[in-house]
Fold:
Amino acid sequence: MTHTPPARPVVVVLGGGYAGVQVARPLDDLADVVLVEPKDHFVHNVAALRALVDPSWLERIYLPYTALLGAGRVIQDRVVKADADRVVLASGTELFPDYLVLATGSGYPFPAKHDLPGPDLTSTDLTSTDLTSTEAAHAKVRNTHAALAGAGRVLLLGAGPVGIELAGEIKAVWPGKQVTLVDVAGDVLGERYRPDLKAELRRQLAGLGAGLLLGSPLEAGPPTAAGELGTFTVTTQAGAEVTADIWFRCYGVTPASDYLAGGLAAARRPDGFVEVTPELLVAGQDRVFALGDVSAADQTKGAGAAGRQAPVVAGNIRALITGEGELARYEPPAASIIVPIGPDGGAGQRAGSEDLVPAETVAQLKGRDMMVHRFAELLGLGT
Ligand SMILES: Cc1cc2nc3c(=O)[nH]c(=O)nc-3n(C[C@H](O)[C@H](O)[C@H](O)COP(=O)(O)OP(=O)(O)OC[C@H]3O[C@@H](n4cnc5c(N)ncnc54)[C@H](O)[C@@H]3O)c2cc1C
Structure:
């Protein structure tokens, strides 16, 4: 007599970034896990700016999904419509999840993230964001690297963590380049962080000779496309002039949630982030979870936050499937951040500590190896 094993519940995870992979893998033993991701590789974008100034890093930050799941599968496709129990992909494939996980993250202007923000993220035409192919994304990074190498003066619009990190990366490779950061805000880094951290970052930027023009927007944006070589002059409303040969946009997180439909659309806030309960269930849902950059669970958006939320989501799905244990709640920690300035510099603040994180610790935590080995392990690739 043949024995038919009981059907395993289907867990569909949308998005194979930091959040998605860390929910998918621990459920592989219990459920039929289907991870949907448009890119052909996991992109460790935390190190994307290092790869811009040194493209030899590209190979290390594009990691295959091949070892992520044993029983489950990764589908290279894009979600165009998702309700609680039906997901439609750009190819026309339909999935019918028992449990659904929204982990589609956010877009950020190239080269900080290697995809395009805005409407292209939900395009039904997979080729319209051709950076889903590793080959195309690497070619674009190499071309942008060549343009940057040929520029004597660089303008960075935005003096948040990405602008500061990019300034540090450029100065580490090309100390002689003129780098200017412009921000409408009166200080670097954004509102959530400590004044002494901002002062330390300003001090290190000044030490490298990077210019800061704060508290005034540009009269008009640069006439050239971001990341392209071409000399231009812009003026801030306060009257400062900057002449540069290339510029990059270092602001603009866009949550990727346009595909939400039916009951799920109700949990999508006007700013695009998805409202969740402390258990990381999508508001009003009992089998749909959201985490990482797309969720409103934590004001701090980070790979670190995604990594702390993932065990809560994976554990709660396990509890629902097995009927054992209570649902866990996610407690957002107080604001903490590390901002590298090149491989050896930077500073940070940690929840619960009065002292700033010194440059040496920032270098150990991120600046030197950009956490590459940690994420390779998460993908099941060892070191
Ligand atoms: C330059 C830079 C440096 C950073 N450094 C740090 C750092 O040092 N520490 C830190 O904690 N954080 C850092 N961050 C923030 C961190 O990268 C994000 O918080 C993190 O990427 C969030 O992970 P996620 O999985 O939620 O989203 P994402 O990483 O954005 O992943 C979402 C995935 O979903 C996919 N997707 C999108 N739309 C769809 C769709 N319609 N269908 C299917 N899949 C889709 C995307 O292709 C992507 O792979 C940095 C960010 C940048 C830009």
